[in-house]
């Protein structure tokens, strides 16, 4: 079934909503030494992957990154400009793209029970993002990889709280408004 202009418009709207959510959550910032702050943006990244799925969620991340690239202050603490793509947080931002794909793919492998939502957010939203972020942070800051990984443990409690929050939000949203999710739209298009 080919998408209609209404479907395309709805998808673009969903991309914009999640890009805006990620940007707004970037206003919640706790600065840390080393140049990588604790932010709520990764909660928005997790939600995008969980709700939009592996094909659409990366587009919401790319919108945020494109806006940052042209200099808009859309990243944590009002940062923007091409300099952020060579700074200590560059790998984490790349990890957002891979992370939402992994989240979406993991969640689509079975029934979206609460534990599958949590596991998908943990693996894609934390482990994948760290896998990209930590090596780039180590490279940019000149700190050895093992010490950078050890310092990343400071983020883990907050990220686990974000996984729990994303799980609660998505489980409640799925019950209240299942049409919001990409997987229900994909099934409807096939039927």
UniProtKB/TrEMBL annotation:
Keywords: Cell membrane, Membrane, Transmembrane, Transmembrane helix, Transport. The keyword Plastid does not apply. The chain crosses the membrane at residues 12-30, 59-78, 90-107, 119-140, 160-177. Gene3D superfamilies: 1.10.1760.20. Pfam families: BioY (PF02632). InterPro entries: BioY. It is a multi-pass membrane protein. It is found in: Cell membrane. Belongs to the BioY family. PANTHER family: BIOTIN TRANSPORTER BIOY, BIOTIN TRANSPORTER BIOY-RELATED. This is Biotin transporter. It comes from Microbacterium sufflavum. The lineage of its organism: Bacteria, Bacillati, Actinomycetota, Actinomycetes, Micrococcales.
């Amino acid at each position: 079934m080919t998408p209609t202009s209404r479907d395309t418009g709805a998808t673009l709207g969903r991309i914009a909503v999640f890009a805006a959510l990620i940007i707004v959550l970037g206003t919640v910032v706790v600065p840390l030494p080393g140049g990588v702050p604790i932010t709520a943006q990764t909660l928005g990244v997790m939600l995008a992957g969980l709700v939009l799925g592996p094909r659409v969620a990366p587009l919401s991340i790319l919108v945020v990154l494109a806006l940052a690239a042209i200099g808009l202050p859309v990243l944590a603490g009002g940062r923007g400009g091409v300099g952020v793509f060579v700074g200590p947080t560059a790998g984490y931002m790349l990890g957002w793209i891979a992370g939402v794909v992994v989240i979406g793919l993991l969640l689509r492998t079975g029934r979206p029970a609460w534990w599958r939502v949590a596991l998908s957010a943990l693996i894609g939203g934390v482990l994948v993002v760290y896998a990209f972020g930590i090596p780039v942070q180590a490279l940019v800051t000149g700190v050895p990889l093992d010490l950078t990984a050890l310092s990343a443990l400071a983020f883990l409690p907050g990220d686990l709280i974000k996984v729990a929050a994303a799980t609660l939000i998505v489980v409640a949203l799925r019950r209240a408004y299942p049409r919001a999710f990409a997987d229900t739209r994909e099934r409807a298009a096939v039927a």
